[in-house]
Design a protein that fits this description.
Blueprint: H1 10-18, E1 27-31, H2 37-45, E2 50-55, E3 68-72, H3 80-88, E4 91-96, E5 102-104, H4 107-115, E6 128-130, H5 131-142, E7 143-154, H6 155-159, H7 164-173, E8 175-181, E9 194-200, E10 208-213, E11 220-223, H8 224-229, H9 233-258
Parallel strand pairs: 1-2, 1-4, 2-3, 4-7, 8-10
Antiparallel strand pairs: 5-6, 7-9, 8-9, 10-11
Helix pairs in contact: 1-2, 3-5, 4-5
Length: 259
């Protein structure tokens, strides 16, 4: 059986975990943990944290690492969030690299999104949705108020016109800490364009969203309206360059005329 697994390599895992702001989380969760690289990176940063992973593939839950608490669990199971809360209580930090899939938007999926308050971000005419929406909902249901989530998202959710309502919702309902554009080869077996979205489960407190690109030090700050429009770093960087370049050319032209 194919589970559309695109594992997070160690260097990317280290970077993604390093962007979290929590200093001493008691629990770190990864739904769809795969090879557990994100959890292992979390364990290296927070040695005392409880490292919890669920994966639909039983082979990924057979680790001999005693620091990991791994269980078989389907990220599309409407009861998964309740199972996690019953077993571990509200989670401090969640990290997730969901399967790269387009899935049917059926009764189970609608139930999960409704419980997380996300049902209205999707048009009633839509028959298929990105699987990442379900994983976002599952994580929002289990992290505590004030908890952090770092989630890998496809380009469509970050900058596609079709998903502007989705971006408007998450920006208005949560504190978006940053959105990081990842290299096209960040994950094995795929060159899909992906992003890491970081949010805090609390109402928005800032008026800008920080955009980054993995491997560069420069960060861009965009207002919320611009972030709702799109949150891809490279597009915003080009837009910024064009504005700056045009302004510089205008100044040069003015100086030439004055001469």
């Amino acid at each position: 059986m194919s589970f559309a697994q695109f594992y997070t390599n160690e260097s990317v895992s280290e970077y993604l975990v390093s962007q979290m702001q929590s200093e001493t989380p008691l629990s770190v969760l990864d739904i769809g943990c795969g090879a557990s690289n994100l959890l292992l990176a979390a364990g290296r940063r927070w040695e005392e944290a409880n490292l919890i992973g669920f994966d639909i593939d039983p082979r990924n839950t057979r680790s001999t690492n005693k620091k990991l608490q791994l269980s078989v669990g389907d990220g599309f199971d409407p009861d998964l969030s309740r199972k996690i809360i019953d077993l571990f209580g509200p989670i401090d930090i969640a990290v997730s690299n969901p399967p790269y899939l387009s899935i049917d938007f059926g009764r189970k999926e609608k139930k999960i999104l409704a419980e997380a308050g996300l049902e209205n971000v999707i048009s009633k005419k839509v028959n298929k949705i990105p699987s990442e929406l379900i994983f976002l909902a599952q994580n929002l249901l289990v992290i505590k108020d004030g908890g952090e989530l770092g989630l890998i998202l496809p380009a469509g959710l970050v900058c596609g016109e079709k998903w502007k309502v989705f971006r408007e919702y998450v920006i208005s309902e949560y504190t978006i800490k940053s959105c990081i554009q990842l290299p096209n080869k960040a994950f094995k077996k795929t060159e899909a364009s992906t992003f890491a979205l970081y949010l805090k489960k609390e109402k928005r407190q800032t008026k800008v969203v920080k955009l980054h690109q993995l491997g560069t030090k420069k960060a861009l700050s965009v207002d919320n309206d611009s972030a709702i429009d799109r949150m891809d770093y490279l597009y915003r960087e080009r837009s910024e360059f064009c504005v700056t370049d045009q302004s510089t050319n205008a100044l040069r032209l003015l100086a030439t005329k004055n001469d």
